[in-house]
Q: What sequence folds into this?
């Protein structure tokens, strides 16, 4: 299959999945106890009669269920995810302002986890029972068993009172003045701890995976051939072996994206990072259902895009998939 | 493996039940035994601890934020309101463990039903069920659980159901793979040739043989479910009248720069529990797949 046809097919599939999320949202609103109009208003029964009747008219709540679903889908197709009555703002605008910081956090964490994890795994694979392999085992345990919000809090205690070298709160300094470059540096400086906290969970997985996959690849014939013809060890490891060991890492990186977003919810809450997770937390406290459902929709959209990118990079990394040969 | 292999005497090997064989491997695995004992100790601590160290975890007993060791009547110190942390740790373990276990059961029931039917029947049923599974995998699990709990009012039961509902896709995929593999084996064909119905073949013939990897996965799911429970109650999505380890961390997070102990102890409790569960899971994995042990 050609690349264009492939992307096209995946896009259609992605749109179907997104429509599925909306249908799910719709049924969740109707399955929740109480009047759907109250649920959409999200004001714990405090909404005025005018707001409620406006919602009933806008969403056609007196019409049959399937008509309501069609109205709901139609509204979303026009970019209307509803109104946050708490913030008195359209949900789409609220979320759009928060997507950037979340993407920044998730990508930074993914980048740290993959880079550090792969380097550690590769080095450990050269001595499968060496000290680095032991470090990886310990890290996997901590990464799996320690709750991420707790790790974050422990790091805040460490960096706020014992070695105060990183900021532990927010995305920018309060009294900040300077150009765009200085601003970017300030954001990165604030990003360090949250991104590292989130990376810890996944770092261990990548290092364990790349260690196992490198041990396999380093035993292959072409690696022996490369060594026999006198290729330097660094080149053998990083050029000949790693390129072949990287495929399972890409697969896992794609699968982990949803989990990264889940982790980001907690990390944002701990570090006051102004992203979607922080907004989700605030919406939960205020029973702001339209915002919460909008966030679910956007998070699913991000996962779908990430999966598409993963598949594309997989085709890029492995020519056999591109050409369809076996 | 040497313990279960027959001696080279020419006699037919004595049949050893798979469970017994797995136990033989498991009990030689020191970390796995350590994990099982640690888990047992935590469960005993949580269930029986309150008999020996009685008292209401919500009662204000001493000055707020008393450090551990400063006052003999509150050995683990007090929280931001002056409540005894040790009482909270004992009382808070119950909901954490119960929700973890209940959510894992729900995950197993949904996952095995979906995966079993998809893998056994194949064709369009498989396609349909797998598309549904993929759909649920697109939703970030913790966020989806948050939405469900918020919409259906926070309580311990809602939380167990919500966590179970978001964690099942992995179990479904694993079950499907096992059913796909086993349904082609001779003993399944034999069962079919003597006229066994589909239901009987699925649940009485294939499922028992698919159990080992599912047991391992269920164990690890308990660990994940405990982390979810902790995270959700940390965010305040549990019934505020249910003491739990995550809730203790959430309630004291604003005082971390003045007092490290109210957040550190419950965190260690969660860590040790999930750590113990994962050691048991790894041990079971090795016990059921002796070949993998060489890795």
A:
């Amino acid at each position: 299959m050609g690349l264009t046809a492939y992307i096209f097919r995946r896009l259609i599939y992605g749109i179907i999945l997104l429509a599925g999320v909306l249908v799910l949202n719709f049924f969740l609103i109707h399955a929740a106890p109480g009047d759907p109009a109250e649920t959409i208003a999200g004001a714990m029964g405090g909404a005025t009669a005018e707001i409620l009747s406006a919602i009933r008219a806008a969403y056609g709540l007196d019409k049959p269920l399937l008509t309501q679903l069609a109205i709901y889908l139609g509204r979303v197709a026009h970019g209307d995810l509803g109104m946050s009555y708490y913030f008195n703002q359209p949900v789409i605008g609220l979320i759009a302002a928060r997507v950037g910081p979340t993407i920044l956090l998730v990508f930074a964490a993914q980048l740290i986890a993959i880079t550090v994890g792969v380097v550690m795994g590769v080095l450990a694979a050269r001595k499968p029972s060496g000290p680095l392999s032991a470090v990886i085992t310990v890290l996997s345990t901590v990464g799996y068993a320690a709750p991420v919000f707790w790790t974050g809090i422990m790091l805040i205690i460490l960096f706020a009172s014992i070695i105060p070298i990183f900021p532990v709160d927010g995305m920018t300094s309060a009294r900040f003045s300077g150009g765009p470059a200085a601003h970017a540096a300030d954001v990165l400086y604030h990003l360090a701890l949250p991104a590292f906290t989130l990376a810890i969970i996944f770092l261990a997985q990548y290092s364990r995976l790349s260690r196992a996959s490198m041990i396999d690849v380093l035993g292959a014939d072409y690696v022996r051939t490369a060594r026999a013809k006198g290729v330097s060890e660094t080149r053998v490891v990083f050029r000949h072996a790693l390129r072949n060991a990287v495929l399972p890492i890409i697969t896992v990186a794609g699968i982990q994206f949803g989990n990264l977003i889940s982790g980001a919810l907690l990390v944002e809450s701990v570090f006051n990072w102004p992203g979607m997770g922080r907004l989700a937390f605030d919406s939960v406290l205020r029973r702001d259902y339209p915002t919460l459902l909008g966030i679910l929709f956007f998070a699913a959209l991000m996962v779908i895009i990430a999966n598409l990118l993963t598949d594309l990079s997989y085709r890029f990394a492995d020519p056999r998939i591109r050409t369809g040969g076996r | 493996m040497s313990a279960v292999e027959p001696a080279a005497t020419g006699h037919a090997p004595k049949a050893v039940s798979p469970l017994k064989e797995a136990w033989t491997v498991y009990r030689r695995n020191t970390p796995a035994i350590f994990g099982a004992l640690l888990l047992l100790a935590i469960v005993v601590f949580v269930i029986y601890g309150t008999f020996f160290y009685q008292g209401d975890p919500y009662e204000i007993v001493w000055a707020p934020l008393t450090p551990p060791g400063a006052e003999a009547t509150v050995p683990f110190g007090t929280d931001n309101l002056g409540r005894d942390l040790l009482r909270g740790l004992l009382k808070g373990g119950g909901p954490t463990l119960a929700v973890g276990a209940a959510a894992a059961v729900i995950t197993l029931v949904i996952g095995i039903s979906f995966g079993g039917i998809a893998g056994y029947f194949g064709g369009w049923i498989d396609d349909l069920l797998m598309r549904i599974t993929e759909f649920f995998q697109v939703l970030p699990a913790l966020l989806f659980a948050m939405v469900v709990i918020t919409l259906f009012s926070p309580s311990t039961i809602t939380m167990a159901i919500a966590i179970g509902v978001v964690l099942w896709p992995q179990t479904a995929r694993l079950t499907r793979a096992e059913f796909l593999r086993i349904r082609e084996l001779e003993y399944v064909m034999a069962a079919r040739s003597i006229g066994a119905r589909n239901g009987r073949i699925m649940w009485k013939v294939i499922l028992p043989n698919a159990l080992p990897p599912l047991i391992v996965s269920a164990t690890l799911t308990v660990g994940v479910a405990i982390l979810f429970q902790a995270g959700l109650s940390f965010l305040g999505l549990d019934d505020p009248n249910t003491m739990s380890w995550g809730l203790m961390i959430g309630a004291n997070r604003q005082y971390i720069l003045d007092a490290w102990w109210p957040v550190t102890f419950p965190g260690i409790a969660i860590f040790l529990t999930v750590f113990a569960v994962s050691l048991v899971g790894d041990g079971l994995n090795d016990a059921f797949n002796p070949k993998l042990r060489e890795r």
About this structure: The radius of gyration of chain B is 23 Å. Chain B touches chain A through 41 residues (CB under 8 Å). Chain B has a mean pLDDT of 83.
